[in-house]
Known about the structure:
By secondary structure, the chain is an alpha/beta fold.
Amino acid sequence: xxxFKSWVAILTIIMFLIGxxxxxxxxxxxxxxxxxxxxxxxxxxxxxxxxxxRLMIEEFEEKYxxxxxxxxxxxxxxxxxxxxxxxxxxxxxxxxxxxxxxxxGIANEWLLDLTDLAADDEDFAKVPEVxxxxxxYDDILYALxxxxxxxxYFVNKxxxxxxxxxxxxxxxxxxxxxxxVRNITNIRSGQVGLNNPLAILDWYPAAVSETLxxxxxxxEGYHLDSKEFINGLNLTKNIVTNNxxxxxxxxxxxxxxxxxxxxxxWASGGMGLVWDGTWALxxxxxxxxxxxxxxxxPGGRTVVANDYMGISKTTKHSEEAYLxxxxxxxxxxxxxxxxxxxxxxxxxxxxxxxxTDEDVLDAYFEIQDLPGLRAAYENLxxxxxxxxxxxxxxxxxxxxxxxxxxxxxxxxxxxxxxLEASVEGEIKIEDFISQINKLANLxxxxxxxxxxx
Length: 453
């Protein structure tokens, strides 16, 4: 698959668009006053690597010579929230910082109210609505998007064509999805439908209902006792029981495959669909030797997974801090510069455009022309947020909350363990789903109370 076009043509288009958009932004009348912004992010790499994030910071300083950006590397990547808490307690909070979870930042009173800063920003207005809403609590904007990815399935088009089967495309319905997974599976020939069946539990409700989100989430809470969730669990169970997923196979069955893990089996061409994120695009382009595409989830709703950045309540330079995040993420001029820099410096273009701006999307698709990815952008108006970084208490509601129910090898299984046991046939979900739903909503309520909602 040829995703990358002529660099000369790309740069010509991008330079033209940058010239048209360079009349930015926010109070450039302050250019005579030099300020320093401290910036903490887990994706800046090292000085020696000089990845695209560091190059973008250099471009920002060139664009705004009165603003110096100082990278704060005192926050450990593996203990991000602990590092931010320590910085806050010692009055050394970075002006701008990545957020593992927005609710944690709200509960600890780290975050500046950004509502007024973003109110009249044309670039922020072009951030997908579902993303803007995900960072807004009680009508207060607490965070800004700092990178965007889509979640969903990638398809091995060659494998389906080889078997004379219809190639799944973005927007396929649920029956077509199930048929594709089943029909492509041939264990003896080293072919299997997909990798991770448990992902279905999360996306299925949103795929069959316009009112439910990821894992049945709505603003009112979870609806795990709904027919949508039960049907998704039963589909997952069917895929596991019939050995349509690599991770549910026995070791003997796996010996038929060219690869020891799902990633290797996918890369070798033995898997029809793989659940992954668009962060894998560069890896796939460089390493896969078959024709592939991104098809998202059945039904066509786009699943959005974002990073977020916040501005410290203690900052003395809120407008400059906002301008920096905008440049690094959702601003038109900044993202066009990111594309130009990636092409000129031969760097990986990490992250999708966090905007619906047509000029930006046209420039992006000059270098990344996957049909399924274009379709995903067209469907953003009915997008679904993957809620781990935005919904209060989600980690407890989805995985970690203990249920008090004993299963084999665990006298007090957590929610995830109980759902997995039901998929594997160890328990009947009907006996426990009401309890699980109540517990998930209790943790959601507790999460909301922690941030004053």
